[in-house]
Amino acid sequence: MLGRFTQGELPIAGRRREQLLFLMDNGIYVVTVFMFIVFVFLAPYFFTPRNLVNILISASLAGIVTAGYTVAILAGQIDTSTQGVLAVATVTTALLFEEAGFSLPLTVIFALLAGVAAGLFNGLIVVNGKIDAFVATLATQVVMLAIALFLSGGQTITIAREGLQEAVFIRVFGIPSSVWIMFFCYIVGYIMLTQTKLGAHIYATGADYRASLLSGVPVDRVIRIALVISALTAALTAILVTARAKQSAMFGLAIAGSVDFVTALTAVLLGGFSLFGGVGRIERNLVAVFFLTILGNGLQLMDVPTGIILIVRGFALVLAVILSVLRARMT
Amino acid sequence: MANDEVILETIDLDKSFGAVHAVRSVSWKVYSGRVNALVGDNGAGKSTLIKLISGALQPNAGGFRVRGQDTRIGGPAGAFGLGIAAVYQDLALVENRDVVMNMFLGSELTRGPGQIFLDHKAMLRQAHQVLDDIHARIPNVREMVRNLSGGQRQAVAVGRALIRGGEIIIMDEPTAALGVEQTQEVLQLIDTLRAQGKTIILISHNIQQVFQIADYISVMFHGDLLGTRSRDEATEAEVVAMIMGKRSP
């Protein structure tokens, strides 16, 4: 008989597919907990308060940038300009605080505005130029890196003035502020994505641009907003990284090795997101960020050479891409 | 035909794309609470005429009269305002969103400060109500659209049109990709809509189906509207002849 749907049932293939998708989407929770337990036994000093706080700080820096990145991916925009935004914002922070003598609040505001400007620039190229975000932001990143290089004169700006690190990295209940900021970003992100009209429009635009357009969703505005959010969280991360290191950081190099486009992308994909937009839940990304951070931290404590750790991280990205494509084929 | 009220009328509507004259001075009457079928071969101008009525295209000349008032249809939003809602052939549904979010896509119910928060409860309630009204059999409105059958998808798309206040519902080849039983579901859906007083504009290739469901059958050929017949006075042979360009006496 055709039309079994009339009895209110899905075809078996559909149900099995949904089960497999559920497993792919939620496997990250199990794997992360399992890995944590393994490191507790295998990696010396792993399960010490000091190291756990270290993990939290590392995860918070990668986590904040990933939160905004997630929003862009959900709207169907692969934002590859993260490194460029980080560079512009770190140089802005260091220059304004150290050399121009700006107050801390003004420094933070201008560094965030630099992020907003970068996001608007991305939006202009993507929306008005009708260029795929992946390619467009690859190009804008080059411009941003060059601007950062020009502003800093190619030098690392060391921050000798007191007050930045102390203010930014205060501890609340023993936990550094960056960790609280990360949780705040994810809570706001979660509410925005699941409870607001903007969130519904971000999901819809990423899942099906044309259908959303025909249904009256302001797709172009949604894409602009998503790109601004992505750049804004990158700028926020840059301020924190700069404050922590007490110097401007050129990203992609050692100092901020764990906060980059690749980490964000890996985390997003491991979290069960589709590269093609419209699918995923932000809370899973947070778990994926912890997965990557714990993996790096645990291997380091086991004295695994850095080169090997980078290779393992590379494979994590490859695995994540495969999972993402498999997932896209199934839906 | 004499007793039926005209709800929408195109007046000398004309549309060209470069050298292609897609719609030639078409004056067409759409009857209220009836199923108005529009038939014709590929390239006859059906889709263009429908896009003009749904506001997706603007005419080069001519106009509209809706409920007796001369008006223009400025765009899809303008069409919604007049109670005209199109259900596109590909339905314009978002596969990876659930039934409720698809039905309210672009016209979400909101609450709270600045109306930025979604009113999930109200949307859920209204979605259930609309789907019940059209006797749609969708067991779970939180189901992703990708898991629905063709007939169920059609119901979701029609539900969206109704939520937007659609009184004149344009359905473009709604059964083109469906199997036998699902086609019957959609025909029942059209029947239900008519029973509720909605006006249907139905584009179809399938003559038997048109004779099964439509009250009026209008035929287009090479951009011209050849004529409109009530189902009772027309024969399949006559309509087929008109589709092939033979003007009936």
TrEMBL record, chain A:
CDD domains: TM_PBP1_transp_AraH_like. The keyword Zinc does not apply. GO terms for molecular function: transmembrane transporter activity. The chain crosses the membrane at residues 20-46, 52-72, 108-127, 134-153, 173-193, 222-243, 249-273, 308-326. GO terms for cellular component: plasma membrane. It is found in: Cell membrane. Pfam families: BPD_transp_2. PANTHER family: ABC TRANSPORTER PERMEASE PROTEIN YPHD-RELATED-RELATED, L-ARABINOSE TRANSPORT SYSTEM PERMEASE PROTEIN ARAH. Keywords: Cell membrane, Membrane, Transmembrane, Transmembrane helix. This is ABC transporter permease. It is a multi-pass membrane protein.
From TrEMBL, chain B:
InterPro entries: AAA+_ATPase, ABC_carbohydrate_import_ATPase, ABC_transporter-like_ATP-bd, ABC_transporter-like_CS, P-loop_NTPase. Residues 8-247 form the ABC transporter domain. GO terms for molecular function: ATP binding; ATP hydrolysis activity. The keyword Thylakoid does not apply. Keywords: ATP-binding, Nucleotide-binding. Pfam families: ABC_tran. PANTHER family: CARBOHYDRATE TRANSPORT ATP-BINDING PROTEIN MG119-RELATED, SUGAR ABC TRANSPORTER ATP-BINDING PROTEIN. This is Sugar ABC transporter ATP-binding protein.
